[in-house]
Amino acid sequence: LILYPGARIDPRAYASVARAIAAEGILVVIVPMPLNLAILGAERASQVMPAYPDVSRWAIGGHSLGGAMAARYAYSHPQAVAGLLLWAAYPAADNDLSERDLRVVSLYGTRDGLATAADIEASRALLPADAQFIAIEGGNHAGFGSYGAQPGDLVAEITPAEQQRQVIAGSLMLIKAISQQ
Asked: Torsions phi, psi of 51, nearest 5?
């Protein structure tokens, strides 16, 4: 799993989630971005994959802007990834993945003030028909990582640990699905 951080978020904010996924035997690479902005490093997955030649199937994902840039990468490199993981994220309108043979899991918080449930719902048409959408009841935008409150976000109604437990479970669903292809 190649993971792109959210905008202006230190990549280490996703370390605990990444470690839990890795504990299941999955290689997880959190990709640092120039100026902590994935929009400036959307192609960085192309540097990660050759470093691990034994990996035969890749998933790419990210949080917020990182997820949008992961979707851009999946759009631009259709043969490179088998799965797309969106954490409080959705593809840009010009990155229509609806006809792609791509497994997609989209996780979002119902208390997200930045990537709202309406935003996520509006992106459905850009993703394959079998994309899985998982609402984290009471989860917010900042709960996908460990970096504190974020301006514009809503207050979560669940603990950060509970939100991250659900993020890990949903992420593993995608990884297990692509490993069985």
From this structure: -75, -15
